[in-house]
## 1
Amino acid sequence: MNAHITEQDEEDAALWVARHMGGPVDATAFSQWLDGKAGRRELFDAMWASCMDESVTASLQEHATIQDNAPVAANDTAVVARPARALMALAAVAAVLVVIGGFAWQPMSHMLAPGESYQTAIGEVREIALADGSTVVLNGASAIEVQLADDGRHVTLNTGEALFDVAHDEKRPFTVEAGAGEVTVLGTRFDLALNDQQIELEVLRGVVRFEAAGADNTAVLVRRAQRSVLQGGAPTAPVSAVVRSEPDWRTGWLEMTDMPLGQLIPRLERWTAKTIELEDPALLERRVAGRFKLSDPGEVLTGLGAIHGFQVRETDTSFVIQGP
């Protein structure tokens, strides 16, 4: 291990272990920390391996609150490979879990992970790594709550859109609740979006059970390259969909073919602080198509208006769509 690793690095590594053990982590921030100094990756790996060793669980519980009062030499900046130092780092993990989760230490197989909340700003795309090996990519202006437990994994999509890549685990189903809809998987990849009054699901890999929350009799199985929409209290029958390895919004693009304007609006609103309003509700059914950069929703609307016969008036707070 690198000789310039400090006690602060050890404390930071312990915190990252605690975060991984307790729930989702910010994958970008974690990667930046690892790459910020030689030896940090090895330090984290060693500490993680120690925490995963069942033989240290009882010792960790017993010593989590012990403070080491032994003096430290002035030149003690290197990693000290003695059991006391390793135990201090492990005890720091337990202490962090107690503070963050508000519960006493218990073995990992019986630990209920505390809930974590994540959200993105308008136009921001963010990837979240979960402790079970799954990843979630949030579209702009989106928010989720995550809870991982020993008997199941649960995510609530409160607003916006998210791409889920779920690690396979037969003993722990992965459930996502979004508005009035719910999907359940064991391991798959899918995109789920709250678009105004609709909940839209598209499956990129595997099979997803899609139903109205609390209504098992509405469930449909949506397979790879299929999509379904929850509307009117039940999901529609799955239909074929053109599936790419990554949804366009991950790279800031939007591609649509014969889409009602009413379905386009919530997608654009994730990328602008302004509201999008229509003077004539009949325009919601106007069919539009094209491929556009999401970073300028006003330009998208203006371009579509020129093609599909409507006008766009911009104010300080909104884009107003008008008839010809």
Note: Residues 252-322 form a domain with the Phage tail protein beta-alpha-beta fold fold (CATH 3.55.50.30).
## 2
Amino acid sequence: MKKFYFFCLFFTVLSTNLMSQITVTSTANTPQIGDSFTYYRMLSPTFDVRNNGANQTWDFSSLTGALDTFSYIDVANSTDPNSFPNATMVAKLGNNGENYYEATATELSYWGGITFNQRRTDMTDKREVMVFPITYNDVFNNTYAAVVTANGLALNLTGTSQIKATGFGDLITPYGTVHNVLKIETVSNYSYTGVPGNYSDTISLWYNAYTRTFIASTSYGYANGNLSISKALCITQADLVTSNTEPVIAGKPISVFPNPTNDFIQLDDIDNEPVLLKIFDINGRLVLKEKVLHHKVDVSQLNNGIYIMKYIQDQQLHTGKLVIE
């Protein structure tokens, strides 16, 4: 009986782990040039999602706030391409700044950044943001160094960080639950040469197996052990991918005007959350992909002809015909 009980217990635990854990990889979870992701941003979040372990639930359902968009562009199109020769892509943070990254098969590394309030970071020893592949309980350690310049003053920074996959389970977003997510936590400790005090930050990222970036995050910054800043992000439904194929959902017609047109179109049925509009030509080729936040879309670059429009909102596929003339 004891042997049978042990076998059942072992099989149950093994089955649960196999069903719930995912592995974050560079192929599935690294942004590509041309990608754009929009997040809800909440400063000083009131909810607590610091729990770790197997089969956890993290509740972001109360997250509200402004929208932040991260657009990934070629280094050549950035503000300062020559200062970051190791970077392979740039995350443009709206009109607030740019972060320079090197993406490889084994890691995503930060080489520096520029904010348009005159602060910049130049890494002399890169900081690893993510290591691939990574799954539950994996641990990676990193050292890094940088020159941080603000208000004309340059300071040398040195630090250490540990990246650890600390949990897996379900993540509750403001619009629904995402199953089988992996939580990856990075704890960093750093100091500035000639400046008294010690600084640290804890950044947690949640990934699923299909979205080419993190789907939620929290960050807590500390100065001499005291919390100085905190923030939470959660990806919008339009940018969340939950399978490796686009879902087939009962169709609903798109309300658009003017149609025919030759410059702009207006979409009527969009709620307050952005949607990803895709326009295809009659041969099925994607000719325009744009995140629609304010309902108006520039289609003046399209040639005369008939096109098919698609977007997903509230678990429903919207489709429609567009005529350019």
Note: The longest helix spans residues 2-20.
## 3
Amino acid sequence: MAEMNGATEKPQGQARPESRAGATSPAATVSPGYCERLVQFGADDHLIGTLTEPAAGASCGVIFLNSGVIHRIGPHRVHVKLARAVAEDGLPSLRLDLTGLGDSGRTRATDGMLAQVSRDIRSAIDLLQAQTGVQRVVLAGICSGAEYGYQYAPDDDRVAGLVMVDGYSFANRRTQLLRWGLRLRTLTWPVLRKAVLGRLQRLREARAEGHGAVPETPVDYGLPVVTVTDFGEGLAARVRAGCPSYLVFTGSILQRYNHASQFEDTMKAAPLAADDRTALREGVQCDFLPDIDHTMTTLHGQRVYIARVRAWLQKVTKQGG
């Protein structure tokens, strides 16, 4: 049964003949060009996803990963809309709930979140291959989903591309100047005065206690720390392995990404080898879309985002096919 208004039904509890194939619900025809059905799979039968299948077969598919703790439909159902749009272009897809998210259950594994996410993605690729016959897949994610896809890609040569929305980003001096400019335009004088005086007071207290300003502690999301050089080299290595990337940055993260040339500028400043720079030019596309917010709230923003990703997927799958 298709997902409607964020609600889902779980597939019927029939036994699976094989782990790779998964249990499925009866297909629901959403459009003359494709149908959808729920699937249950994974080593522990705990993963739930929605499979969208076009009428004709394809060699490449798409797997949509959770954004944070949001259900597999994606922010404001954008993954549902994008999956159906690419199905009209002939690409099958799977909207996946990772372990412990959405409709998927938990496991007894104790080797860490990233190891479990990797197993989930591998199981999803296995299932999409078994059900649709695709040979390779594009991993698409927003925020944490983008970073999961990036971390997984080197471990599986079936990954044909990455769509990363508001994933890894790196500020430069221009980013910082624009960030302060944005703050100054939105702050009133009383608020600015209070902020400056508060900052000075904290510095005085820190000096009185015998130490300087305490650096901000980064939040640990269980993912490896990636520097700008790591990211540039990593993207380049993925391109050379046949895995190009499409990076999208929205207007919701202006404090860390706020101008169209930021990715290119930070990569130029990073100590990358010549072959890495060539790979980035040839295999990485980056769009700054400040009119779109992180959770794809507006219908206009959704249409723009879907059209951009759809065009990139058509280009990549045509080149790969």
Note: The CA atoms of residues 74 and 221 lie 20 Å apart.
## 4
Amino acid sequence: MPLQSFSTDCNACDLTATVGDYLEISLGLETLNKDDELKWTHNQMVIFKRNNKGIIMKGKKENVNEKGHFIIQNADKTHDGTYSFEVYKRNGTLKASGKKELCVQMLAKPGVNITCDKGKVVVKCDTQSKKDQIFIWYRNGGKMKEDTQTFQKNKNELKITDQFECVVEKPVKSHRSDTVPVPEKCKYTLFGFDFRIMVGVLATGGFLVLVLLIVLVTCACQSCKRQEKRMQDEDELRLNNFHTPPQRSKQTARGQPAPPVPQEDPEVSNYEVDDPPPKAQSRAKNQQRVRPPPPPVDEDESPPPLPQPRKKAPNTKRNQGPLYMQP
């Protein structure tokens, strides 16, 4: 875009620019015909000339565009001065003329100042001039919507890696400032790390601890249930052993096989010993006790002696009288 004239601190300058800017000095004409002759001078020295046949007699093709605006790619202090132009028609008559004073300024690079105030982060672009300035702000290299010299942000809106830059856009464009990071005291941190990252880490850790507690409680409950089941099994086993009669030895003390154990009636065994059912008592009375068979006699072993009936001796004392009556 061509530079427009505006009033600055230097009243002699029609156009202002800073070192390194791209400039287009306008003719002020709506159209420029191809058969028009164009001449540009800088401080009364011809810097570009093109005749009505389109032949460039002075300068280079890239010095002007199709509208006839003079182009400066990279402004420096040597471009200061008066720029004059003349446009002639094909018949040689003057079509337009004019001059503009260009001032190239070495505007000091602005600086970024970041401070903290009551949970707010105040970002300011410090410049030498204080009048009617429009700024461009950059955050981490990306352009921001703010265009004032100072703006504020909440701490929780910033990251610990944020960096800011500013540029004065108008009335005199400046270079971009140096990159300034957010100070440590203005960062929204927790234990020295970004608050959002730490909240995520703590939330994840709390979830893992909760899962671990659930697993431990579940294991403890399962262990208690197993312990209770084992105790119930042991109680049932003791009760079964209490109601089951002890088994008799298959051999006697002399090494002979023991007589068979008479089988009990299942109906009778289901009742307690102290209170047998009536049927079991009557049945037990009617049944005769079977005498076990005699143990087998071993040929090598002598049979035990048979019991003999006890012999009664005559009671002589019964026929005798008292001692005092005896002779």
Note: Residues 195-243 form the longest helix (49 residues).
